[in-house]
Amino acid sequence: MTEASAITTLRAGLPDRYLTPDDIAELFEVPLETVYQWRKKRIGPPGFRIGKHVRYDPVDVRRYVRERKTEDSAA
Fold it and tell me: pLDDT in tens for each of the 75 residues of the chain?
């Protein structure tokens, strides 16, 4: 069993755990540096810190995608 298949998915295909910046980069198929720039500019999915680590709630990421889709369809 691969690591990816061992992760339980519950939230519309997203893992049922907090996501890392690496997860976000993989999910959106962008370089990791892009994820850090989004956070710095406050334009990407909202993240939060646990100590020195940045994490993303899958619910917030899903909401971010839904809002982006709504904005794009209105344009």
Answer: 444 444 555 456 677 799 999 999 999 999 999 999 999 999 999 999 999 999 999 999 999 999 999 988 887
CATH of 15-70, one of 3.40.50, 1.10.10, 1.10.3430, 1.10.287: 1.10.10
Three-class DSSP category at 59: helix
